[in-house]
Structure formats: structure tokens, C-alpha cells
Amino acid sequence: MTIHYDNLLTYLFELLSFVLIMIILSGRREARANLSWVLAVILFPVVGALAYLIFGNPRLKNIVEKRMKRYPFLDRSICRDKKCEVDVGELGRLITKVTGMQPVRCWNLKLISDAAEKYNLLEADIMSAQNYILMEYYLFRDDSVGRHFASLLEQKAREGVCVYFMVDGWGSMGLIFTNLMKRLRKAGVKTAVFHSPFGLRTASRVNFRNHRKIAVIDGRIAYMGGMNIGHEYQEWADAHLRFEGNAVNSVAGYFAEDWMFATNEDISENILVPKGMDCGDRTVHLIPSGPHQTTPMIYDSLFTVMNRARHSIDIITPYLVPNQPMMEVLKNTAKQGIKVRIVVPGKNNHPIIAAAGRSYYEELIEAGVIIYEAKDKMIHAKIITIDGNWTTVGSANMDTRSFRLNFELNLMVYSADFAEQVKNLILHYISMSESIALDELRKRPFYVRVFEGGCRSLGPVL
User: Fold this and answer.
1) Same domain, 277 and 397
2) Looking at the domain assignment, is residue 219 inside a domain?
3) By the 8 A CB rule, do 285 and 302 touch?
């Protein structure tokens, strides 16, 4: 009997396509997302199937959910002292209801809008460490900036300080096998890679990236926000936060979760908060997000507060690829006469994502949203303010990847004076930007519209 291998392969591919289509249709995605994956598998059986297994497979999300635990450690971040109980207002109460997260307190909250300032402050705090240092970055460059901080970590490790250093396997792919990582380990720094693309067990999970930028010193000081470690951040416009107080313990807790997920090592008992720490003078919410969550907490929080806006919404984001519900919120809010402003970079480090974002401009501007593009400047800050008294700064962009696929962390602040600082920074960004005119936008050539629309269709995985 003659075996026709071509026919056998054809049957196998058809069977695989059928099975994948059944799996896709059994999922809980939006109908358009399901249709896109079904078409990809039918039209491109091999490539479409591989893309789905890496980027769309819900089983991978289930794996993440099973391995990602919540620790009792995080309960210690909630200050139970009566003097720390402060009313967070309507928006804070809504966020607590929507996410289940309790507000925490911090003090010495500092908005940092310059990478050089952040690096100087972080260096001084690292050098002051006595017990432990936690560093977790999506992108850590092997350049002059990265090597400088690596040398600081080596020095502190040799002094007996316990140093934990973790990078994302996708964002810092070029760092994994470098001498820098070897030097850190040799000096006694404990290192970890979150979802390495070169690991047999983790290569298929690189679509779930750890996009957080965290540093914690001795449980006393925390850094978080949009700035990674690298030379380019000294040239970009970005935003980061430094704070002390009770909320630092929450940041350390999320690091402990991530470390456990990446290494199976529980370090929570090694990074206890110092006893008697002052809770703080500001009330905030620390909201994490990741593919292990039943519902995306950062997205749910933003969706909730935007629907409660009465006067203004200001959004600073490097990547504007919202889903349809978020688009409707922005458009309907602007139609009500509420001022909605969005500032994006005019010079983007990801041209395809920028093109996808521009495909949304026309309908947003038609609804009354004002869009600014910074002239020849990469803005990497992730900031949203509502009505001049609520602010969030963190690592999450205004896109589906940040809301549903990445591990992110945002700080939400209930403070009019802090919102005023953020407002001044937003006005600075606007001063170096140009508003997008609707009539000029409509003159875009047809081929540009086609390209932008094609990029927009990739929005869920960009």
C-alpha cells in the first residue's frame, strides 16, 4: 500500500485547524476576536495555528492563573490603624468595589519626570540599603546606564545586602546571556528571568510579559512607573514615582509574587516591612493587572472612573490602541461637553503601534476629543487625570496588551495637590505638542488609511 504523505499532512493540518476552531469558539472572547482567530487558522493553517498557540491560547492563561498566587504577605500592606483611615471619596470607593483592593497610605510621594533625576535618586537609595534591594524591570539595557546600576548592585551584594534582580524575558531578551548577568550572579546577586523565550517551559508564554518597573529598598522606599533602565530614557519624556510609607509593602508584595512565579522561591518572609513604619499622609490605591486576573483590574478601574468624569479627562500615553468599549467612553464623554485631551508622541519607538493609534484619531476628534502629538519627541509616560483631583501613574499603556496580557502596576492617587503637579507636567507636554486638525487628518492618502487599518487589526497582540 502506497502512503501519500502529502495527503496525510493535508488531513493532519485540516484536523488541527478543526480542533483549534472548536477551541476558539468555546472561549469567552469578544465575537470579533474569535472571528479573527478563526479566519487566521482557516486562511493560514500553519502560521495561524502557531500564532494562536502562542498569542491566543487560553490554556496558557490558565497556566498563569494556576501558578500566580496571592500571598498573605499582601494583607500586611493594609494599615489597620484607625488614624490611617481616610475617606477616599466616590472614585476611591468605586475602585475598591470594582477591584476588591483596599486603599493604602504613603508619604513623601514624588513625581519624577526626568530620567536623570530618577537615576540619581535611585542610586543614592541603593547605596543606602542595609538589608535588601528588589529590582524588577521590563527592559534593562546592557549600556552605560545599565552597567552602572549593575555595578551598584554588585557592590551592595558584596557588602552583604540581599539583592534580588529580575527582568522580563521578552523586553530584556538581549540581556539574558550577557556578561552583565553573569557578573551579577558571580557577585552574589539573585537573578531571575520572567518568561524566558529560550526556556522549554516558558517560550510559549512570552506573550504574557512583565511590564512592571519596580525598585524597593529595605521596605522603606519604593519606585514604580514608566521608566526602565537604559540610555534612551534620558532623552524621552517619561514619568515615575518615588514614595515611602505603608504602601511600599504592597509593592514588595507584588515583587514577591512575581519572583515566586518566575523561580518557585517564596521570599516574602525575607522582605518584611519594618515595624513601626509610619503609614503615610496620602491615601492611594496600588492596582496590579495581569492575565491571571479574572477581570483586568486596571482596565476596570479606568473604565469606572472615566464614566464618572464631570469636568475633564487628560491622558498621556505612548501607545493609544483602546478597545471599543473604551473608545465609546472617550467619545461619549467628549460629546457631553467634558474636556477630553490625549497626548501621544509624534516620534514613536514603535511605528506599527503608532500607526494603529492614528487609525482612531478621526472618530475621536469628530466626537470632540482633542489629540496632541509631541513634536519630534518620544513621550513614554503613562498618566491619566480625572477632574483635577484623581490621578494614576504607572506602567500600563492605553492598549489591550497592558490591560489584559501584561503584568502591570499603577498607583491611583486621591489628592488635589498631587493632581496639580501632574497637571503642570501635562501642560508642559502639551506646550511641546501640536493638536491634530480634523481636516488635515481626512486628507490622508488611501494607502495610509489601509496601512493604519491593518495595524489596528493587530491591536490585541501589539
Assistant:
1) no
2) yes
3) no
Contact 92, 99 (CB under 8 A): no
Q: How far is CA 359 from CA 355, 366, 376, 440, in A?
A: 7, 13, 20, 14
Report the 10 Å Cβ neighbour count for 351.
10
- 288 domain residue, yes or no: no
- Residue found under cell 516620534: 347
| CATH code at position 431 | 3.30.870.10
Count up the domains in the chain and report the number. 3
Q: What is the pLDDT of residues 35-78, one digit of tens each?
A: 666 777 777 776 777 667 666 665 555 555 555 554 444 444 45
Q: What are phi and psi of 179, to 5 degrees?
A: -65, -25
Query: What pTM does this model have?
Result: 0.87
Q: Answer yes or no: do 44 and 16 share one domain.
A: yes
Q: Which amino acid is at 154?
A: E
Which residues in 15-43 are b (16+ Cβ under 10 Å) and which e? eebeebbebbeeeeeeeebbebbbebbee
For residue 282 the three cell numbers come to 496620602
Q: Could you tell me the three cell numbers for 182?
A: 553573569
Torsion, CA 260, CA 266, CA 267, CA 273, rounded to 10: 100
417 Cβ contact list (under 8 Å, min separation 6): none
Do β-strands 370-374 and 433-435 pair in parallel, antiparallel, or remain unpaired?
A: antiparallel
450-460 pLDDT, tens digit each: 999 888 877 76
**Domain extent for 41:** 5-56
How many Cβ atoms are within 10 Å of 346's Cβ, its own excluded? 18
